[in-house]
Fold this protein.
Amino acid sequence: MTGLGALGGGSAQADDGARTVRLGGVAVNLAKGTRQVVTVKHRSGWHARVSLWRHGGGRWHRVRTAADGRIGYGGLVPGQEREQGTGTTPLGSYRVTETFGLNRRPPGTDLPFHRVRASDYWVQDNQSRWYNTLRNKNQGGFRWRISGYNSSERLRDYPRQYRWSVVIDFNRPDPVRHRGSGIFLHVNGSGATAGCVSAPRRFVRQTMKKLDPAARPVVAIGR
């Protein structure tokens, strides 16, 4: 799903056929058949409120909320204007299709899960055909020793944040080079993120267990 800017209209109720809805103050662009949404509502600075919603009985229900969510140190920008290395979090609505973690798969997790290995990287090398994907160093095809924002991210270097992580399909599956790679919902670190969304460990773990591929989940990030 292409990330879109703020959308108007809607309420906490929606028909099954609705394409847009406003949940917790965040405009959500729904994929066809979406019945689960994670909203990220900016509060101030790099702080945000992160909520999980489900649709049932003709309306949207808030399942859980984390008041201590985080966004990038560079603030929020429209997804189509984002530049890699700026520490910004992309506004818009994006599909969720996979997860990963250094810890074991939480019981009941239905989205595809990858247990991180020692040489696993998220490819940020703009010259690589594997840009914005998870790939093991032993498979080759990307640079990891260069400095700067083109240096791919070794996932095991972030044992706290990547205990569990939900991949947000920003700039995927057909990435625009230099727009950004590796936007996740992951566990809180000590402060702002470098562009991801983060939330307390319990919230991320429980959300991973609830997300259902058949419900076509979406993450929506708004001001």
About this structure: The longest helix spans residues 201-210. The helical segments are 201-210. The chain has one helix and 15 strands. Residues 1-16 have pLDDT under 50 and may be disordered.
